[in-house]
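Inputs:
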Amino acid sequence: MKALGKRLSRVGAYCRRNPKLVSGASIILTLVLFWLIGSLLLSPTRAQPISGLPDQSPSLRYLLGTDNNGRELLAVMVVGTGLTLRIGILAGVIGLGIGIILGFLSGYYGGLLDTVIKGIVDVLLTVPPLAVLVVIAAVIAGAMTLDSMIVIVASLSWMLPTRTIRAQVLTMRERAYIQVAKLSGMNGLEVIVKELMPNLLPYLAASFVGATAASILACIGLEALGLGPQSLPTLGMTIFWAISFSAMLRNMWWWWLPPIIIIATLFVGLFLLTAGLDEIANPRLRRKM
Amino acid sequence: MTVLLEARNATKVFSSGGFFKRKETVALENVSLSIKESSPSITGVVGETGSGKTTLARLLLGFIAPTEGKVLYKGGDLQRMSRDERLEFQREVQVIFQDPFEVYNPFYKVDHVLTTPVAKFHLARSKTQARKLIEHALQAIGLQPEETLGRYPHQLSGGQRQRIMVARASLLKPRIILADEPVSMVDASLRATILENLRKLNQKFGISLLYITHDLTTAYQISDNIIVLYQGSVVEVGDIELVIKNPQHPYTQLLVASIPVPDPDQRWGQDSATVLVSKTPVKVNRGCKFVDRCPFGMPICGKDPPPLFQTDGYRAVRCYLYKDASVIAGNAIGKDVGPKR
Amino acid sequence: MKADILQVRNLRVYYQTSLGPLKAVDGVTLSLKPGERFGLVGESGSGKSTLALALMRLTKPPGYIEGGQVLLDGLDLIKVSENEIRKVRLAQIALVPQGAMSSLNPVMRIKAQIIYGIRDHLKKMPGSALEERMHELLAKVELKPEMANMFPHELSGGMKQRVCLAIAISLSPKVIVADEPTSALDVVVQKQVMLTVGQVQESLGVSILLVGHDMGLMAQFVERIGVLYAGKLAEVGSVREVFKEPLHPYTRLLIACPPSLEEKGQFKGIPGLPPLLLNPPSGCVFHPRCPQTTSRCSVKIPSLKEVYPGRWVACHLYTEVKR
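Outputs:
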């Protein structure tokens, strides 16, 4: 018990010294709570069209008003936040997963495998992701679901994690403790999992956050263009509908402003989180624990 | 007389540069040495930067392959070992590295470097037995398990960390320990204990030691025989007392003369041993590598590399000054130039 | 009796940590005469590098100078303004730092780096005069003139060290502080570089404070020696006297440590571990490892006393000589 208390106080002391990490995490946590508590208090059907009177400005009945199709915007925000987070995290996980596998293998084993993977990554990185996504989404058009969106976005988010991880592995591969591990009888896979990965946790975390942020941005971009899942009240789609129905001209600020605020908040949070993780990962930025 | 680890005329050339400007560096040239099973000895390998001693270590461990020549373990080529042979090799040949900090994975406690080989080489049948084995090894080195186990590397001193590495090497009861500058990054006051530990490993357990260093004095204290490397070639080899007390190769003489003796009454003179420019203005392409710094340079030195001449019962020198002595055939060192005992 | 060119009085340099101040240098007093070679020997953690930087007032946070005086020809370097100390550095007191070879700017040619320092101090000097001076300096440290146009990576370790030496003497300072200048060099190059340093010192008449851990090097090079342990001086005296008759038990062990080329023998070390500077032992900081410790040693901190003329020891085994 005492040990736990000691651990927590050390964590607390570190948090005081790394305000970016803490504030970033708090922002994200607030949004998650917003979604969770909101989902408990509001029924998700209220985010569907014709669940309320259309074009209502905020009142006690409709706290954030309604849009042109009668969707209650507070409910839309809650549901939309949840969906956006889900997209981000799933795409981030897929991107990171591929990145880990390819990055570690190519960095550690080198040789032909490395040349091939590195080549593919370098080529794909030059492809403008949004353009490709727009084309793919336009082709799928009506059949776009949330999951297909996640897969499409993730398919272009794995390259940067692969490269970052590979670069890190290359520098760590020649370290003395890796040689000691090999001399102690460990084979390649064991070295990767037991010796390299634990030391790369900050980088993996930073890559994950980066991939998540990129995915969310891509999704919102696609949705705002109208290429997202049409029937889902995601934040991006809300913006699309707001644009289509001239919400700005009609002074319906409760329609276009809330999604923008939430998206901005989300990105500020992700940015701070990345900066905070960078501080852990890069010892030169790190202040002594 | 089984030969355990052997390098036969090993040469290693590193090529660098791009497609058009390939640069070739000869890191090691025609080096032979052998460590036998029956007479566990301590062999010092002394050389400065660029001498090739690190390359030699990596060749002997199989981390790199020789460009020419072979490196053999129990007669088998290191580069062509099966998985089982490799495991046996790893168990019987252990290493102690120079940097006592870099060898530890900062994520784990120091126990990790001790428990991993025990597990991988099946040295114990249960966790308690493993723990006992580790504690014994630490105590044999003079460390208290309570003070060292359970700590992170940065919580221990360099000397302690290095001693844990020695304990790790002894755990596996190897036949050969390759120590690459084991004390150069450790404080002078702690060096003695580590060197004493290594010496005990040799005497008590019959482990042969290859002590690689640039420090001639510690090499003298611990080794039975010595190999002096200069720019990738063996310039002098043999019994340590002979080589140190009566160095014959001009480079060995230079090395011995350059060591700062801790006696204010024996100061360095402005002697000729620090000659920077040679007497033979020959571009060294073939020939002895030391010729541009050698005060005794002769015309033949610039033309052909000298072979090893055996000048004493247990010593050989690669220098034309001794061309009247008999040449050791094929650079073979071993039977003729071995430890006294 | 010439006046001391450098006087360090009760210098204290601490490091700020979350667990309190770490006393890296705790009350060091020593003096240097003009043209003298003084060696400060200590192991890692003794505070010698901290001391060397503090003399130049180059201590970086979390380190800070807690107190004391550093009198260079009467001028207290600790108290002067930032502007003043910048004029003094290089011109009056120069540093050859540890790892000097990697402190050369890799993208500047050698000649530019040497001129850089001079130009900052002697702003009025014309370009041609600077070039000439630069060539003079290269010759003094036995480097060929064509090396002026080279980049650091084209030079060997020994040559780079000579460049650092050339920079240090460029303004003919009164004192040069050399912090382990040869620790990364091979033993043959070390001898060559140290002999050059010696020649330069003699021809310029500059005082040298050589900081290091190699007792052999100290014996070969310095005239007087101070032994540093855990931030405090244990013993000071002429190098011959200290080696022939070491007074402080730590000095005795230090001298016995290095193995010799004379004969094979037992390896001698110093038992125990270096002290934790955050929580040093009570009384004499060496007493847990001392073979001659008495009951007084764990209670009272011994002060540095002059037991013979010119011989100082901080140990309860010795009493002060009555002058």
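Remarks. Residues 14 and 23 of chain C are 5 Å apart (CA to CA). The radius of gyration of chain C is 20 Å.
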